[in-house]
Amino acid sequence: QVQFVESGGGLVPPGGSLRLSCATSGFSFSSIAMSWYRQAPGKERELVAAISSAGGSTNYADSVKGRFTISRDNAKNTVYLQMAKLKPEDTAVYYCYAHIFSNKYWGQGTQVTVSS
């Protein structure tokens, strides 16, 4: 079955960096576009970044452009989110996501807290 396992979250001071990973299994990873979403307390879940199946196309929420980078390693079935210049407003649970054959799949989420 389809599985996503996120890791890499934690507590980081403002201006710091983190790299999130989402290891996947159970589907043809190299054929599927992948995304990262986040949800802050009391807010709607929002798209942070997305990457095409081959990795040649990416897009970002305006709030993270120039600070976050999404990438993927199709040999390792893993998608990454490199986050830099983190701000307190980046605090949220981060989820990886894929839409596979009309089904939506989410990881369990990893908490990112930006605070001094």
Q: What is the compact description of this entry?
A:
The protein is mainly β and 116 residues long. The protein has strands at residues 3-7, 10-12, 18-25, 34-39, 46-51, 58-60, 68-73, 78-83, 92-100, 103-106, 110-114. A hairpin with a 4-residue loop joins strand 7 (68-73) and strand 8.
Structure notes:
The protein has strands at 3-7, 10-12, 18-25, 34-39, 46-51, 58-60, 68-73, 78-83, 92-100, 103-106, 110-114. The protein is built from no helices and eleven strands.
Number of strands: 11
Averaged pLDDT, please?
97
Return Rg in Å: 13 Å
Terminal CA distance reads 40 Å
Helix content: under 10%
What would you call the structural class?
Answer: mainly beta
- Beta content comes to over 45%
The best one-word shape is: globular
Topology:
Blueprint lengths: L2 E5 L2 E3 L5 E8 L8 E6 L6 E6 L6 E3 L7 E6 L4 E6 L8 E9 L2 E4 L3 E5 L2
Parallel strand pairs: 2-11
Antiparallel strand pairs: 1-3, 3-8, 4-5, 4-9, 5-6, 7-8, 9-10, 9-11
Quick tags:
four-stranded antiparallel β-sheet; mainly beta; 11 strands; 116 residues; single chain
